[in-house]
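REQUEST ID: PR-0412
SUBMITTED BY: lab tech R.K.
PRIORITY: routine
TASK: structure prediction, single protein chain
INPUT:
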Amino acid sequence: QVQLVESGGGLVQAGGSLRLSCAASGRTFGSYLMGWFRQAPGKEREFVAAIDRIVTSTYYKDSVKGRFTISRDNAKSTVYLQMNSLEPEDTAVYYCAASRLLVATRPSEYEYWGQGTQVTVSS
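STATUS: complete
OUTPUT:
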């Protein structure tokens, strides 16, 4: 069992930056692929980024490449999402999630989810 708690969301102007954090409970954090998803009102939850267990590979949604950076600190059982050059289209609730798979970009491939943190980008 893994419990995930996100933090760091908020209101920011377009072009600004935010850093999301996701703290995990348990001693098996390093066993999971970690991902970030987001869900805007009236839309389906979508993949944003993922990072593998040993920090050798990262994966990104095309529209966030070059602006967002996912990272993890296995010693702190925490995964981060640094978001730069934010756009109004990035407004959504952001969720972190954990998967036992080596690579996963679909919500159904993730077993554990946090409660989400709101990110609002004003124009």
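NOTES: The longest strand covers residues 92-99.
REVIEWED BY: pending
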